[in-house]
Design a protein that fits this description.
This protein is α/β, with parallel strands linked by helices. The protein has six helices and seven strands. The longest helix is centred in the first third of the chain and has 18 residues. InterPro entries: Methyltransf_25, SAM-dependent_MTases_sf. One of its GO terms (molecular function) is methyltransferase activity.
Length: 211
């Protein structure tokens, strides 16, 4: 995925306008065709957690920013009870068709992952998966994201997150660091940070809920 051709000066400063701006940008990706982050293949970092030598026991999973459902389908095929949430209705429609084609029962919810209380998404969840969703959320909504997950996390739950580093996108808000996650996610331990294989700064973060 390449950097967006967006200049910081073009980004709205009002919080509600910024949220609408982000939604419009995401919708544009789906209107233009296949989003660049949707490869139709579950990433090896997820497959290692689900089917590797030290795999988690299947439980309940929440796929945050699930897109067209590639990773939700992978989890469901491996015995997980999956809920997927995405801001874009077009993505949710495609995800439902993908699950139907695979004859899998997955609950897909259109909505904002920073406003889980307004959705039919109740915990506890044993696994949260986030493929570059959090790192694109406007900063003023990130505490709400962390609180929503914390309230729905089972003891010992994992959060596996892929994120771009600050400065990869010229928009003034995209990006995430280990220090930010440690600060925002009270009651969680950051147990692993693994650099991505992209030609620009990215990381895979693994957090574990206390208890």
């Amino acid at each position: 995925m390449t950097t967006r051709e967006t200049h910081h000066g073009d980004i709205p400063q009002d919080e509600s306008e910024l949220e609408e701006f982000v939604r419009d940008k995401l919708e544009q990706y789906y209107r233009d065709g296949k989003p660049p982050w949707d490869t139709d293949v579950a990433p090896p970092e997820l497959t290692a957690l689900v089917a590797g030598d030290a795999a988690l026991l299947p439980g309940r999973a929440l796929d945050l920013g699930c897109g067209t459902g590639t990773n939700s389908v992978y989890l469901a095929r491996n015995g997980w009870e999956v809920t997927g949430v995405d801001l874009i209705d077009r993505a949710i429609d495609q995800a439902r068709r993908k699950a139907d084609a695979a004859d899998l029962s997955i609950r897909f919810q259109p909505g904002d992952v920073t406003r889980l209380d307004s959705l039919d998404v109740s915990g506890p969840f044993d696994l949260f998966f986030d493929l570059s969703c959090y790192c694109g959320i406007p900063t003023h909504r990130r505490d709400a994201y962390a609180e929503g997950l914390t309230h729905r996390a089972a003891a010992g739950a994992r959060l596996l997150m892929f994120g771009y580093g600050p400065g990869v996108f010229d928009d003034g808000y995209t990006g995430v660091t280990a220090a930010e996650l440690t600060s925002r996610f009270g009651g969680w331990e950051l147990v692993d940070v693994t650099p991505g294989t992209n030609p620009f700064p990215t990381n895979w973060f693994t957090l574990r809920r206390d208890g």
